[in-house]
Amino acid sequence: MLSSVAGTAAIPEISLAWTEHSIAKLRDELIAAHGDSQRLRIQRGLLQVARFWRGDDGDAATFEDFVRAHFAGDQSALDAMFSRLEHLLEHLSGYMHEMNREFRQQLDLDLGPVLAIDELIGGYDPSAHVIDDFFQNKLAFVVLLNFPVTSLAERLTDARLWSRRQWAEVRLAQSFSKRIPAEVNLALAQAEAETGQYVSEYNIWMHHVLNAQGQRLFPPRMRLLSHWNLRDEIKASYTDSSTGLEKQRVIQQVMEQIVNQSIPAVVINNPAVDWNPFTREIAPGAVKDYDRAAASSNSNAAREPDTRYAMLQKTFFAARKADPYSPAAPTLIARRFDENREIPEPRVRAMLEQVLSSPLVPRLANLIQSRLGRRLEPFDIWYSGFRPGSQYSETQLDEMVARRYPTAQAYQQDIPQLLIKLGFSRERAQYLAANIAVDPARGAGHAMGAEMRGQKAHLRTRVEANGMNYKSFNVAAHELGHNVEQTFSLNSVDHIFLKGVPNTAFTEAFAFVFQSHDLELLGLPAPNAKQEAEKTLNDFWATYEISGVALVDMAVWHWMYDHSHASPEELRNATLQISKDVWNKYYAPVFGKEDVVLLGIYSHMIDAFLYLPDYPIGHLIAFQIGEQMKKAGSIGPEFERMVKIGSVAPDLWMENATGRPLEADALLEAAQRSFDVVTNAADH
Ligand SMILES: [Zn+2]
């Protein structure tokens, strides 16, 4: 009952003059023909079609003829329609995907020079217009007439009552629950490209950033991209006992000025001036460590004019254009949480707050403080001193890996042995190996799953002329985890519309399970309890850091929706206030300093449309899945059992996989255990 009521309520006003009359007429006609048992399906289907029907789809007579021809009025008609769609849509996406893969081959693989024509072909996506085509030829309307478009509330409330087939119908209808016009998609792509460009050129030339005394701390030519490289340089500086701390303080200054936009515009991506962020002095560069000619050496200290926030607003304005065409999730916030993640925003917020206010945080902060031998400073949210340590150097590992894998083919042949080491039976290992093709990657490596049963997943890995190195082996273990998940969750799932896992955080969690066993895959001893514990504490501290960043991203998007006519300056002030509020609540008590704005530094906040919460959710999911694997004892069979659940709602998935809904407890418990291991070990 609940589902049909909520489903109807989710459909807003009906726009054409004749629709109301046609709907009433057809409803009575169809109920008379198919019986009162079909009443709810008939009402819902008519409204779903009407919601997306535009004037150019046809007049009242066309609408009525269409409905009469395509409503499946009994179970056997519906079954026939469902299985037809299941078969055809699998083949459509399967062959589209194969075309895409072939078209991108020269760009993705290490196959020699890339010609101009390869860029052209690789950029072409044959599937780009499929949804448009299916609204045009009315196949999308057939789906909307017969299968339920659901809200997240229904998918959560009714989740346990639905059969697998009902879940598959829900997923089928979801793929047609939006009809976004081409010009809106174009605006979205433009905003993404423009902000991505802004972010990707936001470099700081560190040799030209001076400390408070006017000295150069960073080497020539060091160019750090905000925020990733800046943050990673803070992390790397913990091992530099002479100038590390000072470097970290300088980088914090730089980051804060990027967030509050007091950074002089002339220092962005410009090595021709020297900048003292403490005194705000700018001078023509005294040292030349760059080759390009066009660098500007003017000493104008004018600040960046809120461009950062104007960019963020571009993504908001573009995202908002899609709102009217997405009735089941009418804001970008709803699309992210209700559709992409399928975890309600309040639940995500509660889990993040649980991590942030964990009693373990101050205790861990004390441990870090004692390891550093000083009071914490704000940049220590990126503390990187929990180190698993290893008895082998990177060079030794490189040699071992290169000997074993001189070519991508050698890795391919070893896949069954690798999988057997992870507890897969010989038969499963061979089956998986036969479904995974290893290709030499041009870049760092990636995994590409198939879209149709019988097609292979592809593992792209980097192999140098003198063989694979350890870094690539570690990445390949991650990608192999993806490929195994992709193979099972495509080929062993009961309905093709349920292939995969609930969302990308789950995909990554399975890849991390493989990656974290890379030493054992090399035949080396597994990390001991102390090493494991250090790694867990590292993950917990990273989750604490990124949970605050995610809360800022979420609050900023709400502010933008609440203040859609704001100026970039107003958005800047709001973002600063939000960053300070989150900091003051969850970090200031630990760090002993208020009003820090560092949580606003992430570049993804500017160009990634509310993506940041995926990081902490990913950590939580990875822990919950990892802990379950440990309980089961062996990875292989448990991995297969879990990924066969398919893409149902995350909570339902997690209950089937671990007996518990999605929650932060697995991470918090593991972190507490690890804290005890590390502090007890230190006592002895
Ligand atoms: Zn991955």
Structure description:
The protein has 684 residues and is mainly α. It is 59% helix and 4% strand. It has helices spanning 2-9, 19-34, 39-52, 60-70, 75-108, 116-122, 130-136, 139-146, 152-157, 164-174, 182-200, 228-236, 244-260, 307-321, 332-341, 345-356, 360-372, 394-404, 408-421, 426-434, 470-491, 504-515, 518-521, 529-562, 568-586, 588-591, 604-607, 614-632, 635-643, 650-658, 665-683, and strands at residues 203-205, 223-225, 273-276, 281-284, 436-440, 445-448, 457-461. The strands form three sheets. Strands 5-7-6 form a three-stranded mixed beta sheet. A two-stranded antiparallel sheet has the order 1-2. A two-stranded antiparallel ribbon has the order 3-4. Strand 6 and strand 7 form a beta hairpin. Helix 12 (228-236) runs antiparallel to helix 13. The longest helix is centred in the first third of the chain and has 34 residues, at 75-108. The protein starts with a helix and ends with a helix.
List the helices and strands and how they pair.
Blueprint: H1 2-9, H2 19-34, H3 39-52, H4 60-70, H5 75-108, H6 116-122, H7 130-136, H8 139-146, H9 152-157, H10 164-174, H11 182-200, E1 203-205, E2 223-225, H12 228-236, H13 244-260, E3 273-276, E4 281-284, H14 307-321, H15 332-341, H16 345-356, H17 360-372, H18 394-404, H19 408-421, H20 426-434, E5 436-440, E6 445-448, E7 457-461, H21 470-491, H22 504-515, H23 518-521, H24 529-562, H25 568-586, H26 588-591, H27 604-607, H28 614-632, H29 635-643, H30 650-658, H31 665-683
Parallel strand pairs: 5-7
Antiparallel strand pairs: 1-2, 3-4, 6-7
